[in-house]
Amino acid sequence: MGYEGYLLKIGDYEIPQKFIKAESYKAYVNMQDVDDYTDANGYLHRNAVELKVVKIEFETPEMLSETEFRELMSNIQKGYEISKARQCKIKAYIPETGEYVEQMAYLADLEPQIYWTKGNTLIQYKPIRFAFIGGVYDG
What we know:
The protein is mainly beta and 139 residues long. The chain contains 1 helix and 13 strands, in the order βββββββαββββββ.
């Protein structure tokens, strides 16, 4: 399938490239094991499970305006399936495989930091880190 022209989709919303700071997109799949053990000879016995948990991280560009931040956040929030948990379906491009992974995930806590304000008309932000963590049970 390969790259389809976007890096991350939340619900039906493709996050525009303008909201992803260059060199900040990280997307990977974490292996999960259950009940691994090391035997008496020192060999590790792994029990890898089928579900591979995705983690997607990126930062917004420097000096994002309040208007731009509201645009990004409102579109992400429209994709929440459980608002109070910030839970949503994501589709993310994974560089390791060159493919997309779809998974239920949640948006980790945000810490927007205001760079400066100008009167009562403008707020600008330092880069804001977004992290979506997959593997959320949806059923």
